[in-house]
Design a protein that fits this description.
Layout (H helix, E strand, L loop, with lengths): L21 H4 L16 H8 L32 H11 L1 H21 L6 H10 L2 H12 L9 H19 L13
Helix pairs in contact: 3-4, 4-5, 4-6, 5-7, 6-7
Length: about 180
């Protein structure tokens, strides 16, 4: 969007964790205000109208009606944790929250590099996005404690990783599927 720029593109204006987005990982999206190629966004336009706030929570009108229904469907990342992620970023402070995101990103990179059989990228992205960091650390530790996995075919390694992530999701009562936006009408 013309005139809209941001210095921090790992965590979006509206509270999405761009650092964990498959589109950003693939180099297809610079994030809101990240430069050439960024998409027109109603919330970015709203930011400009409200003095260029870097995060919606800085606006005196937050949360506003623009958020109604926003989380009903996912894009390339889950939207259902957005409000909770905003609260966590505010509570921890932005730098601590970004460090948390970077650790999650490192874990995601490990899953993609060593356990992705070409069919699990969305599942790994979604799991890392939604699961608490402690659960991700535990899953990675469990995988690393099985040296025999290194010699297994990628499909077997993928199944082991998916099984651990699914168990963690089940304990949390989470679905690791992206939600489609309900059809209007």
């Amino acid at each position: 969007m013309k005139g809209f720029t941001r210095t921090e593109t790992r965590f979006s204006l509206c509270g999405l964790n761009c650092a964990l987005c498959s589109m950003r990982l693939g180099g297809y999206c610079p994030g809101c205000g990240g430069g050439a190629g960024n998409q027109s966004c109603a919330i970015a336009k709203c930011s400009l109208e409200h003095g260029g706030v870097q995060f919606c929570w800085e606006c005196p009108e937050y949360p506003c009606p623009r958020y109604e229904g926003f989380d009903d469907g996912d894009s390339f990342v889950p939207h259902r944790n957005r409000q909770q992620d905003i609260a966590q970023a505010r509570e921890l402070g932005l730098e601590a929250y970004l460090a948390h995101l970077e650790e999650k990103r490192a874990i995601l990179d490990e899953f993609l590099a060593h356990y992705n059989d070409g069919r699990r990228k969305t599942l790994f992205n979604t799991a890392v996005y939604l699961l608490p960091l402690e659960d991700l650390r535990s899953a990675m530790a469990a995988l690393n404690s099985q040296p025999e996995l290194a010699g297994q075919p990628i499909k077997e390694r993928a199944l082991a990783a998916v099984g651990l992530l699914q168990q963690a999701a089940d304990r949390q009562g989470l679905s690791l599927k992206l939600n489609k936006k309900p059809k209007e009408g």
